Amino acid sequence: MADHDENHGHSTAAWVSVGVILLGTAIASVAVVIPNLVVGIIGAVVMVIGAALGKILSMAGYGSDGHHAQAGGAFADAPDEVGADTRGKS
After folding, report:
1. Transmembrane segments in this chain: where (predicted)?
2. Residue 41: what pLDDT?
3. What does the pLDDT read at residue 68?
C-alpha cells in the first residue's frame, strides 16, 4: 500500500480543477435530461478545461508543493490549528 499523502487535494490548483470539472459535469447532466448534443459537448469541453486548469495552476505554483503553499508544507484547517497535532481527530 502506498504511503498516505497529507497534502493530497489541499491546494488551490486541486480545488479550482475539481470545481470546474464539477461544473462541466453539471452541464453535461443537463444535456442528458434535455437530450441536447451541443450542451453535452460544452459540458465535456468544460471538464477538459478543468483538468488542464489544474495542471496549469500547479505548474504556476498553486499546487501542494508550489511557492504559494504554506511554509513548511503544513496545512491546517483553521489558523488556531497551525502546529497542532490534529491528524486523525475530529
Report:
1. 12-31, 37-57
2. 94
3. 55
Q: Angle at the Cα of 28 (from 15 to 34), degrees rounded to 5?
A: 150
Please give the Cα distance from 84 to 90 (Å, whole number): 13
Report the sign of the C-alpha dihedral through residues 49, 55, 57, 63, in that order: positive
On whether the CB atoms of residues 82 and 74 are closer than 8 A, the answer is yes
Please answer whether residues 78 and 69 qualify as being in contact, where contact means their C-beta atoms are separated by less than 8 angstroms.
no
- Give burial (CB, 10 Å; 0-12/13-18/19+) of 67: exposed
Q: What residue has cell string 488542464? A: 52
**Could you read off the pLDDT tens digit of each residue along the chain, which spans 90 residues?**
455 556 566 677 788 888 999 999 999 999 999 999 999 999 999 999 998 998 888 888 777 666 555 544 455 555 555 555 555 555
